[in-house]
Design brief:
six-stranded mixed β-sheet, binds adenosine-5'-diphosphate, alpha/beta, 43% helix, 375 residues
């Protein structure tokens, strides 16, 4: 068995996998946790009660989601002293996440000293992005001395759906060019060339790029200076505005796309405006990544919005984009898609448009298994 853990600052999500078949045996979520030790005790008790384990040490393999791997990790790794030290060092780049991830790792280590733990990083898939795309045009010393560069996030999801797309299209992932759109509360787009990420919309932090549920995505950096210097808003509040009060919520008061769709259907103009901005941003990235890639084998929608909102997908593929890319959405298929992986473009479209259900925990289990088997 492999237990996949996503340790957040106030919750632990977990999924138990059969190591050989990668079938999900059980899953759950511990909310509002104060102490990781107690949270894990609950999880282990639940697994005992359901008959999956008899003793604590029946689970010998753990896969951890770790948000930031910096420039150190481009694939999953067995957690040892070096890895823990690097995750700790990177807390400064992902304060809300890496600290919690590391705490989870340390508590498991204490409770089960003989277990093998693997770290799977959100940033790892994007380590193939070339320097011209990951560097910001600010003085180079900020990169050299302070590690300020684009790292990208959601890598586990982009990687998973890219492999699923290859399987669906019966093509070799190493020969596949894709644009993957992970649209959820957090959203990002990735340009994938020959199976490798060559650009992505999130940057130094997950605030950059597309418009999101409550995050602004990219804005003119001078707006921050103006808010501070001219409007007198302090930096903590600006941080809150950009991360929690912007995006869909900032424009129409709601961050949940299902509610926004209902508001639009009831004639709410602000909701319509929020959706229009959201869609415009997505098209900007598709256009620029199409040019960066030159040749595209498929465009993939994933994440809560990408998988479920036919309204967003139809608005993204308007006649301009369809003409530019020489593809066409099948409006009926777009509305009826139900499986985990399906095509929603017309039969003779040059570029298939796919909807693929992401599964980050499964990708973590795959990465964990592969890492252990390669020992
Ligand atoms: P997270 O980034 O937190 O993992 P999700 O990937 O679950 O988020 O995406 C959440 C978003 O997906 C919300 O805006 C939600 O409204 C939207 N969503 C979920 N189901 C649907 C649906 N059936 N139709 C439209 N939007 C949906």
């Amino acid at each position: 068995m492999i237990l996949v853990l996503n340790c957040g600052s106030s919750s632990v999500k977990y999924k138990l996998f059969n190591k050989d078949t990668l079938e999900v045996l059980h899953k759950g979520n511990e909310e509002e946790i104060i102490d990781y030790g107690l949270a894990f005790n609950h999880i282990f008790q639940e697994l005992k009660d359901k008959g999956f384990i008899k003793n604590l040490d029946d689970i010998k393999i753990f896969g951890h989601r770790v948000v930031h791997g910096g420039e150190y990790f481009n694939k999953p790794v067995i957690i040892d002293e070096y890895v823990k030290q690097k995750i700790e060092e990177l807390i400064k780049l992902a304060p809300l996440h890496n600290g919690a991830n590391l705490q989870g790792i340390k508590v498991i280590e204490k409770q089960l000293p003989n277990a093998v733990q693997v770290a799977v990083f959100d940033t790892a898939f994007h380590q193939s992005i070339p320097k011209n795309a990951y560097l910001y045009p600010i003085p180079l010393s900020f990169y050299e001395e302070h590690n300020i560069r684009k790292y990208g996030f959601h890598g586990t999801s982009h990687n998973y759906v890219a492999k699923e797309a290859a399987r669906f299209l019966s093509k070799d992932i190493e020969k596949l060019n894709l644009i993957t759109l992970h649209l959820g509360n957090g959203s990002s787009a990735t340009a994938i060339q020959n199976g490798k990420s060559i650009n992505t919309s999130m940057g130094f932090t997950p605030l950059e790029g597309l418009m999101m549920g409550t995050r602004s995505g990219s804005i003119d950096p001078s707006i921050i200076l103006y808010m501070h210097d001219t409007l007198g808003i302090d930096m903590n509040e600006i941080n809150r505005i950009l991360n929690k009060k912007s995006g869909l919520r900032g424009v129409c008061g709601n961050s949940d796309l299902r509610t926004i769709q209902d508001m639009i259907n009831n004639g709410n103009e602000k909701a319509q405006l929020a959706l229009d901005i959201f869609v415009t941003r997505i098209k900007e990235f598709i256009g620029s990544y199409a040019i960066e890639l030159g040749h595209i084998d498929a465009i993939v929608f994933t994440g809560g919005i990408g998988e479920n909102s036919s309204m967003v997908r139809e608005k993204v593929f308007d006649s301009h984009l369809e003409e530019f890319l020489n593809t066409k959405l099948d409006k009926h298929l777009n509305k009826t898609v139900k499986t985990n992986c399906d095509k929603i473009s017309v039969i003779d479209a040059k570029i298939p448009i796919l909807v693929i259900k992401t599964d980050e925990e499964k990708e973590i289990a795959i990465g964990t298994k592969k890492t252990i088997e390669s020992l």
